[in-house]
Design goal:
Layout: E1 2-5, H1 12-22, E2 26-29, H2 40-50, E3 54-57, H3 63-76, E4 79-85, H4 108-123, E5 128-132, E6 134-136, H5 145-156, E7 159-162, E8 165-166, E9 169-171, H6 172-185, E10 189-193, H7 201-211, E11 218-221, E12 226-227, H8 241-244
This protein binds NADP nicotinamide-adenine-dinucleotide phosphate.
NADP nicotinamide-adenine-dinucleotide phosphate binds at residues 7-13, 32, 37, 58-61, 83, 85, 113, 132, 134-135, 142-144.
């Protein structure tokens, strides 16, 4: 089985590629320097030539690229997975969000991700769209929560962490495993991948701090007051608590 994966220089795609390979897939990366993403004919030709079993569109990039790739996969009968984001919900919307809750994004990133979803769905009715929460990796260095905390600490000398913010998040490796589960077990449609059973940002930050040998000074705060959780009973994501084992805070 073959899978084209886009975004391989990023955070989620390499982890997904590892999970796919562990499940018997040969991963073909989309190398943007070799295959242009702004030419619909080139997009179609590359996908038609490789003819993988799955196309996993994990990269950021234009809604046009997402649409053209989704359409080519529809034409060639190739499975199409798109990674969306919890950011389609605005910070003033209150979770937990089911897939039926209508996103009202209030920033450019959320609007962009929602537009990609819309284009993918129109171009390919069989597409699977998996919205992800904030990814928790093992170390700073890419787009994950540990990196955010590290950089915040470097910049400010401490980390403000709200006990009243329940963020949508999951361990990166667990997200990758669940994405493979969606490919293998689920049908077309929209999915929410949530690994947080209800821990606050404060609890998560303190747990990560402890796991990393307490490099950070964490200052508990009461704001922001937010709940960005998603929910979806159809998809299992290993709860972050199994990795973080938080204390009573
Ligand atoms: N990381 C998170 O916490 C998180 C949370 C929610 C949702 N997501 C979703 O997960 C997916 C992957 O995110 P990520 O964290 O892996 O992102 P990332 O680390 O920023 O990497 C994204 C990859 O997308 C490609 N890319 C970036 N800008 C591009 C552009 N202008 N045009 C074309 N390609 C571009 C690059 O891949 P190449 O150089 O290999 O082509 C890049 O390595 C995205 O759909 C994101 O919305 C991530």
């Amino acid at each position: 089985m073959y899978a084209i994966v886009t975004g391989m220089n990023g955070t989620v795609a390499p982890e997904l590629a590892r999970a796919l390979e562990a499940n018997g897939y040969v991963v073909v990366p989309w190398v943007r320097a070799e295959v242009p993403i702004d030419d619909p004919a080139a997009v179609r030709e590359f996908i038609g030539n490789v003819k993988p079993d799955w196309f996993c569109h994990v990269a950021l990039g234009s809604p046009d690229w997402a649409e053209w790739a989704a359409a080519a996969c529809d034409e060639f009968d190739i499975g199409f997975l798109f990674t969306g984001s919890v950011s389609v919900y605005s910070s003033s919307q209150v979770g937990p969000f089911s897939i039926h809750d209508v996103p009202e994004p209030n920033d450019d990133y959320g609007r962009y991700k929602l537009e990609c979803e819309r284009r993918v769905r129109l171009a390919n009715p069989d597409a699977r769209i998996a919205r992800l929460g904030w990814q928790i990796g093992e170390a700073p260095g890419n787009n994950n929560l540990v990196d955010y905390l590290h950089r915040h600490h470097v910049d400010h000398g401490h980390i403000d962490a709200s006990r009243n913010w329940i963020p949508s998040c999951a361990m990166l490796a667990d997200t990758a495993a669940s994405l493979v589960g969606i490919i293998e077990m689920q049908s077309a449609g929209l999915y929410h991948l949530e690994g947080n059973p209800g821990l606050s940002f404060l609890e998560i930050a303190e747990s990560l701090n402890r796991l990393r040998g307490n490099p950070w000074t964490i200052v508990p705060t009461d704001t922001p007051v937010m709940n960005n959780l998603m929910r979806d009973d159809r998809v299992e994501v290993r709860p972050i608590i199994e990795t973080l084992a938080p204390s009573e805070t």
